[in-house]
Design a protein that fits this description.
5-stranded mixed β-sheet; binds copper (II) ion
Length: about 290
């Protein structure tokens, strides 16, 4: 009789712990999740420099918002356990072993599976919908709408700088990436020596630059922007210095910049190999 009374008292205490924990967790999640979605998510890089970059900010916001209750669960459980279940006697003893709880196990598996599967579905949808390529070689599985009319620009990684070729402007090669605003651009990323990685941070583009490979990535520019380009693959001694600055400019500024580049390049054009989607120049005529 006395034993059954003790057991029911323990059961009631467990339920009360469960309810108190749930109340804390729900309360913190309800307050923190909107705050994270409104203030933290939109502040996560790469910002809104291009349509694709803005899409990444949306994805990051969804991810941090969904992970906020998960994070709150772990932290509330930790703090609750440390404060409520702390061993105050100082005796070297452990709590009663837990032998399983069907309801919690089923809930645990169901909720975590639903969360992970919905995020996988969301990520896949975004990947297909965005169609930015970048890592799938010359013909990406998914392409953005209107990709046929995209402006082609080649990105050539080399130790230790990037140069750029504009096939629509006679294959002129420049040391600076300049793009017109509000334009869908198809970047053909390649390398003429080691493996590099082209990373235009504010544009939200990152694509491997491999010798002999035409790695296509799409980016849709927005308004005028100065963006940073870095190599993101250890490519030799001066990899750390392989960076430069690019610009998104108005169509008229773009046209006049391209004209200036053509004039500057005119004396050396005869030494450049004809434009091709990969760039493996003869060693005697090595460009760049
Ligand atoms: Cu590098």
């Amino acid at each position: 009789m006395a034993e059954s009374l003790t057991q029911s008292a323990e059961g009631a205490a467990e339920i009360s712990h469960g309810r108190r924990f749930l109340a804390w967790w729900l309360g913190i999640s309800v307050v923190a999740t909107p705050l994270v979605a409104i203030f933290l998510g939109p502040a996560i890089p790469p910002g809104h420099g291009s349509v694709e970059a803005a899409g990444q900010v949306v994805d990051n916001t969804v991810l941090v918002a969904v992970s906020t209750p998960v994070c709150a669960f772990v932290l509330v459980l930790l703090v609750y356990s440390l404060t409520v279940f702390r061993n105050r006697t100082g005796a070297l003893e452990d709590g009663a072993p837990i032998r399983g709880n069907n309801r919690i196990q089923v809930l645990w598996v169901a909720i975590t599976s639903a969360t992970v599967l919905s995020l996988a579905a969301f990520g896949s949808y975004e990947l297909v919908n965005d169609g930015a390529g970048g890592g799938q070689g010359p013909s990406a599985a998914f392409t953005p709408a209107g990709y046929q009319k995209a402006l082609d620009v080649q990105v050539i990684g080399q130790q230790w700088e990037f140069t750029y070729r504009y096939p629509a402007a006679g294959g002129v090669e420049t040391s600076e990436l300049v793009l017109p605003e509000n334009t869908l651009v198809r970047l053909h990323v390649t390398s003429l020596d080691a493996i590099h990685s082209f990373w235009a941070y504010e544009l939200g583009v990152k694509a491997d630059a491999n010798p002999g490979v035409d790695n296509v990535a799409y980016v849709t520019t927005k308004g005028p922007l100065t963006f940073h380009v870095r190599c993101a693959e250890l490519c030799g001694l001066w990899h750390g210095y392989m960076e430069d600055v690019g610009h998104v400019v108005s169509p008229s500024d773009y046209a006049s910049w391209l004209d200036r580049q053509k004039t500057l390049d005119a004396p050396i054009m005869k030494y450049l190999p004809p434009y091709a989607t990969t760039y493996l120049p003869d060693p005697q005529q090595r460009a760049g």
